[in-house]
Amino acid sequence: CKIDRGSDVTIVSTSSYDEPSMGNVAYYLAMMGGFNFISKEAESNPLHHVSYYNIDKKMLNVPEDNGEKKRTLFQKISDYMDHLNTPELIRKQQRIQHEEAINRKKELKNLNQFVKDIVEISKGKWVIFLVSTNGIYDSDIHFATGVSNDNKRSGESTADNEVFNKLYGVMSQELLEKHHLKTDCNQSITTNNESNIAKVLGAPRTLKAFSIFISYEVTCRNSEYLYVAQTMANVIKNELDKKGCVNTDEMREYGYGFPEN
């Protein structure tokens, strides 16, 4: 799913199919803020859930030996599938292997399109990855910028630390005062692994990005979860994308996810 609203912020849900309520929270947060929205809404194999939050660079672009032109792994598997279509080899392959190869081919195609959408829509703009967590922590919402929690200065955390630090300070205060939700940054969860989608796409050098991990206690067990999303949308709007205003009229009309009073 891709919605381009011409915003300076793109909300990305890498695991909407797999994580209960996250796709819903991410969609409405993006809608209320007027932000761009990208979401993984389907699985090529419903029996095997795959998140795009951590990915292998080789799945996107693999150099060939002997100086040959670079091809994506999807193209390699596509060539392999062409061979599978010959009668002789099809008879030698078990059906399950054939189906797994087809599912793998679909998954790689979907992943490449997902990444392409993020790159095209977010040039020079902020990307915020929303992810669920069911871990037991002292805080409810966790920010992660790609810095290890045991070495806070192990490199630039975002493309614009000053802007991010201000956003985090305001967001933490708002979530605590309005919803009694605690936050932390690069403490409970870190994203400094090389397979993290933001790093794969060039953060922090060529991509302004950070992640927000939201507890299931907020997204699934809190009847006011969209009120929380509204607060987050307000802060993101004020700090990163001042065009337009937060829109909650339709949801407020039906009282969906907002306080009863």
Low-confidence segments, given as residue ranges, are 61-68
Main sheet properties: 7 strands, mixed
Compute the gyration radius: what is it?
20 Å
| N-end to C-end Cα span | 34 Å
Helix content: 40-55%
Alpha plus pi helix count: 9
Q: Which series of helices and strands comes N to C?
A: EEHEHHHEEHEHEHHH
Describe the structure.
- With 261 residues, this protein is α/β, with parallel strands linked by helices.
- Helices cover 41% and strands 13% of the residues.
- It has helices at 22-33, 73-84, 87-92, 95-121, 161-179, 197-200, 216-219, 225-240, 249-254; strands at 2-3, 9-13, 36-39, 126-133, 141-144, 183-185, 208-215.
- It has a seven-stranded mixed β-sheet, sandwiched between helices.
- Helix 1 links the parallel strand 2 and strand 3.
- The longest helix has 27 residues, at 95-121.
Q: Could you give a quick summary of the protein structure above?
A:
The protein has 261 residues and is of the alpha/beta class.
How are the elements arranged and paired?
Layout (H helix, E strand, L loop, with lengths): L1 E2 L5 E5 L8 H12 L2 E4 L33 H12 L2 H6 L2 H27 L4 E8 L7 E4 L16 H19 L3 E3 L11 H4 L7 E8 H4 L5 H16 L8 H6 L7
Parallel strand pairs: 2-3, 2-4, 4-7, 5-6
Antiparallel strand pairs: 1-3, 5-7
Helix pairs in contact: 1-8, 2-4, 5-8
